[in-house]
Amino acid sequence: MRTRLELDLDFFVKQRDLIQREADEISSTHKDRSETEERDEFLSPLILPVTKYLSVQDTRRLLEADQGPLGENRAQELEEKTDPGQDPGGWHFIGKLQRNKISLVAPRIELLHSLDSLKLAQTLNRWVEDNLGRSLSVLVQINIAGENQKSGLDPLTALDLIPEWISQFDSLRFEGLMTMAPQLPAEECRPIFRALRQLRDEIRDRLEEDSANSFKALSMGMSNDWRVAVAEGATILRLGRTLLTDEKGR
Asked: Does domain 9-243 match CATH 3.20.20.10?
């Protein structure tokens, strides 16, 4: 059972604005960190509020207050927090996607952060082609740290596979990479984030121009390490508790 936190909307909005300003400052300071050209569009990282700690009612309050897009990591909760026919532009799915949940998740989201295997890519592409009526944007999950308990491609495999997937799966729009750093002090996660950025750049070098122009996103950084992630090139920050409580756990 998840521990729920009560939404203080005023606090949330102020906290989000504070984090956005700080993230913009960090990103601007490090704008030359990547060898990839045309970084300007990512000088303002997207803050993605994660709704795992929120009730259905509080989640809908965020959407009504135009605080989306939001991120959810459980298929069942995504179903509970969305309405049939709702604009999928309000949601990202950031958790592990089981193949038997594709029909529940795919119509409700604009971006999947956790494409982590060939079998999932094949099944998802086929379902989207047959049922969705639009392409689905995806990020490929990379297990940079090689942790046994976490999903994702290893970097060397990804370097060869992702260009093949992009050419093979026409119903999926590949927009970049995602990783989950180990639970370490923030500064110790820096090499993880840097390695993901470097992998993204290496993959882009292997792509045709149109695909390379789309393959830019880096979903990395959570509540404890987002500053380091931004300094290393994060374009999407997955934030939960830090948007809902102050440093004293209020």
From this structure: yes
